[in-house]
Amino acid sequence: MRLCFFTDIHGNKSAFDAFCSDMEQKGADEVIFGGDFIGYYYEAQEIITTVREKGWHCLLGNHDKMFLDMLDGNLAEEYVTERYGNSYRIAKETVSQENIAFLRTLSSSWEMLTDGICIGFFHGGPEDALNARLYPDTVLSNIETYCRYDYIFTGHTHHKMIRQVGKSQIINPGSAGQQRDGKGTSYVVFDTVTRQAEICVFSYDMTNLLEQIKLYDGANEKMYYKLTEVLTRSPLVYK
To answer: Which of 124, 167, 177, 216 has fewest C-beta within 10 Å?
Structure first.
């Protein structure tokens, strides 16, 4: 079986459309989304609708959880706007009740048994499915938790990683919507028979996205820089 795992799209429909086109050329038997429809950018509604129509398995990301908390009155809209710009406000105005109900059904983890291997999918990681941040140099305190799985797929950090921990391999494809490691937007295709993982980097036209950032968050110079700088970040300026 060929699995595609992508994560952290963050309302970036320009990147999402390019991902879909690139992934279809690669081919996959099953597609799993690792969470974070919401946050930073503005077209979460269209992305959620498309993913639902395609029947892809989805996880709940921390930004999705914050969005639901905001809707439920457990998190102030002013707080998320100050940190992430107007994306949450746009999502509140545009995400349909059907899509909100769909988000409420999601979990931050999922397990799959196939071709003799156990695979764990997490937005964060096995020790904290929603919020764990796993980097190549992260010190892991509970190795047994990881070794329950042959392969672990994670998101959340927006950094690409393939790391061996005991018998387990941890794979983070990086972000499909907001790369932070200076290595481009990306996803992973994994063959459960050959057990080979290919991290696939793709490009997309940012013109429309940049116009949206200017429209919705251009008046806030600090936020405008935060939302645009990361899109074209390179290893030369970010370590």
So the answer is: 167
| Domains of the chain, each with CATH number or no CATH | 2-232 (3.60.21.10)
Is pLDDT of 216 > 70? yes
Q: What is the pLDDT of residues 105-119, one digit of tens each?
A: 999 999 999 999 999
| Residue 204 Cα distances to 45, 48, 143, 211, angstroms | 20, 19, 38, 14
pLDDT score of 227: 98
pTM of structure: 0.96
Contact yes or no for 27/216 (Cβ under 8 A): no
Q: Which residues, at least 6 apart from 215, have a Cβ–Cβ distance to it below 8 Å? A: none
Handedness of CA 63, 69, 70, 72 (dihedral sign): positive
Residue 158: predicted pLDDT: 97
- Mapping DSSP to helix (H, G, I), strand (E, B) and coil, where does residue 201 land? strand
Tally the residues of the chain: 239
Say which amino acid occupies 171: I
